[in-house]
């Protein structure tokens, strides 16, 4: 009996030839380990294989990769090395434990004009700073679903940070998405851009707006949440694979079930709630002041910071 070839690479998996392997790699799954994070239907979608074959290939990939364990200290060492983007406000940085973290999704939700987009602009500038100055030394992919990207604001914020406004703008790759398909495929096909342009921050402003306007009514909710889940899964995937930060904004609604206290609730349901590593609730205060509440964080206590939205950007 012929001995089966040892599985070392994606090409070695049953049912996967060079063309299919290339498709899978282009989608960002260039190692067996990364491939193992996919569900059969996801692999099937990426590769065009049928679900049965996708499952067989994944089973073989799982058998070929061994699970390695790290000690708590090793994980701690790695965590200390994770980069953070300064927000421009010392108080807000402290609330976040240093800034907006790489390898994670940070969500800001709040009413209209609460400052969600302005924080996105500030982060798009600051991500370009070298690590010693509070950045990630990379460029930015900015998905604008509401038509509110303003280069003038980037220019002003960059000038205030002593950066060349033109260069700063050249390092921000803006996609104006008008449909969820566009929004999703921008992220699904982002790997090439991320590698070539050293993208270190992905902004999705806003994450839910198009999903809400396209999937209307109870009947569409299941499909909406399923697509949203895939989208968020992919965002988390690229955050991990490339060590980049993901900042998403989210809309709110009044939850009629909350009778006492603030009924403002982010949209997107459980899927959104579980997806964000860190959630921030932005509220308008007097004049240019905004209150930022840390609602959910794996390692920081709940708390609030007061920031100002100025012409130069986010400040204490
Ligand atoms: N050039 C500027 N100087 C000072 N404040 C500004 C400037 N541009 C916008 N803002 C403030 O930002 C607020 C809008 O914040 P934004 O982040 O766009 O809200 P949203 O939460 O809806 O995304 C406005 O209230 C406005 O006062
Ligand atoms: Mg906005």
Question: Can you walk through the features of this model?
Answer:
The protein has 316 residues and is an alpha/beta fold. It folds into two domains: 10-64, DNA polymerase, domain 1, CATH 1.10.150.20; 77-315, Rossmann fold (3-Layer(aba) Sandwich), CATH 3.40.50.300. Helices cover 41% and strands 21% of the residues. It is built from 14 helices and 13 strands. It has helices at residues 18-26, 32-35, 40-47, 51-64, 72-80, 90-95, 116-126, 151-160, 165-170, 180-188, 191-197, 209-214, 218-242, 269-275, and strands at residues 84-85, 100-101, 105-110, 139-144, 172-176, 199-205, 245-250, 252-254, 264-266, 278-284, 289-296, 303-310, 313-315. It has a nine-stranded mixed beta sheet with strand order 5-4-6-7-3-10-11-12-13. Strands 1-2 form a two-stranded antiparallel sheet. A two-stranded antiparallel ribbon has the order 8-9. α3 (40-47) crosses α4, α7 packs across α8 (151-160) and α13 runs parallel beside α14 (269-275). The longest helix has 25 residues, at 218-242. It is globular. The model has no long low-confidence stretch (mean pLDDT 94). The structure holds adenosine-5'-diphosphate (ADP) and magnesium ion. Adenosine-5'-diphosphate (ADP) binds at residues 110, 112-118, 309-311.
